[in-house]
């Protein structure tokens, strides 16, 4: 048999990318109702964030989370580690609020109040002021490096970094008194932890809002992944009306486009150009959509110029779109049983939390019995030693009295009146004596009553155990 040589055929190498290459997005500026509301939220959140740290209350910072002293100051309220329940309640309220807002209006928090959205909006505004609007920024990035390009980029990044560092400084100022922090920054005496968080939070703000932008919403934010579990067909979402808009196509304003078989969409691409995440809402709802409404404002402007009815892209529900529901019927379904249950539970928790805070006792007492054996006196009386940890959460010095109840003839041998400084905690040893024969051998229940001498309505009763040896 004749041998036929096998000639190897070269295989063309192919490079397979595991991740989609990022295409830089240049959001186009637009004006409209939703854009105005987004800037209202930007101003509100940033005035609150940057301003609250500088407010004073009772000769101290009004809002301060002092982790070293384990005290949280929120205006006139002082919370201690024993008030951890309020943090749990706050987390529950936040979770239920997220469920409620998402069930009603989708990712509306992401579009208007999320820090990533807010700072991206601010950074984009700075970029537009320095480099120009969308087309100017595209041309600048495509141009070779020049003195003008370098100068514009340098100024932009300088302003970005300055704002980011100020943001990091303000963030740390809620945990370290901000005036002390400013002094430490000025004379380079910041501690290692303050320095780390100051730079870390500033770097995170600069990186997320300046460079990563929509990448955070698309790939890092977990909410984008599980939001669909909280949506249903009666949730308000940003939607393109396909039945009205398609077939798409450009046209002259004076042409009867309907006779030409076209829909209302002129295929201008404005909805894509203004989108901060770069999606085309006409392809349907996508997880990248942050419900900011920018495409609605952009489309409405085009509809106005063409003389068409607004609302080709609008906030509506899937049921309203497919079943042609009017606004009244749509809103009736938006506030359905699911959202009413979320709202009722949320309102009840907020009400109970408010009542609890209003009735918050500014005095806390913990009782710990000494582990040593009880002392028996010559007359047969029994003595137990306790340590009372007393916390005065008021911001004024207080004087308290201590009483013991639950055993006939029980007395406190050492001083029963104690002085406490403002917002302080102190441990006091207390010796309690009970006459012989009053209590049974073993463990017996007694009560300590600590009372404010100037305000008797402020009092705390704590249970304890009195040991009678066999």
UniProtKB/TrEMBL annotation:
Record key words, sorted: 4Fe-4S, Electron transport, Iron, Iron-sulfur, Membrane, Metal-binding, Transmembrane, Transmembrane helix, Transport
Domain 4Fe-4S ferredoxin-type: 256-284
Family annotation (Gene3D superfamilies): Alpha-helical ferredoxin, Immunoglobulins
InterPro entries: 4Fe4S_Fe-S-bd, 4Fe4S_Fe_S_CS, Cyt_c_oxidase_cbb3_FixG, Electron_Trans/Redox, FixG_C, Helical_ferredxn, Ig-like_fold
The keyword Nuclease belongs to this UniProt entry's keyword annotation: no
Stretches that traverse the bilayer: 37-57, 84-105, 158-175, 195-212, 340-361
Name of this chain's protein: Cytochrome c oxidase accessory protein CcoG
């Amino acid at each position: 048999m004749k041998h036929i040589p096998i000639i190897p055929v070269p295989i063309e190498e192919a490079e397979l990318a595991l991740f989609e290459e990022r295409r830089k997005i240049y959001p186009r500026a637009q004006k409209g109702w939703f854009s105005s509301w987004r800037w209202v939220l930007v101003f509100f959140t940033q005035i609150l964030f940057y301003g609250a740290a500088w407010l004073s209350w009772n000769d101290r910072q009004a809002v301060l989370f002092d982790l070293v002293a384990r005290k949280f100051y929120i205006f006139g309220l002082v919370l201690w580690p024993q008030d951890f329940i309020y943090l749990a309640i706050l987390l529950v309220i936040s979770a239920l609020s997220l469920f409620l807002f998402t069930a009603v209006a989708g990712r509306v928090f992401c579009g208007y109040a999320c820090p990533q959205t807010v700072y991206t909006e601010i950074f984009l505004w700075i970029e537009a002021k320095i480099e120009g609007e969308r087309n100017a920024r595209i041309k600048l990035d495509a141009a070779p490096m020049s003195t003008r390009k370098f100068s514009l980029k340098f100024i932009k990044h300088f302003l970005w970094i300055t704002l980011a560092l100020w943001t990091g400084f303000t963030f740390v100022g809620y945990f370290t008194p901000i005036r002390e922090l400013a002094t430490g920054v000025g004379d380079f005496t910041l501690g290692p932890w303050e320095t780390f968080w100051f730079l870390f939070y500033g770097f995170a703000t600069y990186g997320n809002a300046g460079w990563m932008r929509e990448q955070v919403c698309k790939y890092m934010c977990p909410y984008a992944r599980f939001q669909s579990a909280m949506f249903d067909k009666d949730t308000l979402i940003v939607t393109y009306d396909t039945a009205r808009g398609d077939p798409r196509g450009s046209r002259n304003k004076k042409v009867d486009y309907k006779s030409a078989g076209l829909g209302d969409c002129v295929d201008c691409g404005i909805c894509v150009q203004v989108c901060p995440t770069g999606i085309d809402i006409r392809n349907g709802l996508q997880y990248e959509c942050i419900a900011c409404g920018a495409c609605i404002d952009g489309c409405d402007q085009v509809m106005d110029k063409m003389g068409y009815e607004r609302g080709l892209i609008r906030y509506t529900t899937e049921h309203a779109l497919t079943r042609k529901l009017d606004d009244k019927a749509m809103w009736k379904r938006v506030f359905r049983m699911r959202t009413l249950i979320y709202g009722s539970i949320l309102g009840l928790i907020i009400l109970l939390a408010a009542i609890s805070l209003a009735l918050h006792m500014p005095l806390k007492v913990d009782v710990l019995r000494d582990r040593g054996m009880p002392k028996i006196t010559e007359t047969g009386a029994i003595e137990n030693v306790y340590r009372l940890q007393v916390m005065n959460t008021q911001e004024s010095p207080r004087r308290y009295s201590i009483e013991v109840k639950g055993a006939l003839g029980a007395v406190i041998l050492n001083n029963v009146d104690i002085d406490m400084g403002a917002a302080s905690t102190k441990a006091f040893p207390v010796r309690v004596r009970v006459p012989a024969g009053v209590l049974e051998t073993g463990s017996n229940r007694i009560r300590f009553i600590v009372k404010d001498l100037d305000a008797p309505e402020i009092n705390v009763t704590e249970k304890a155990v009195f040991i009678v040896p066999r």
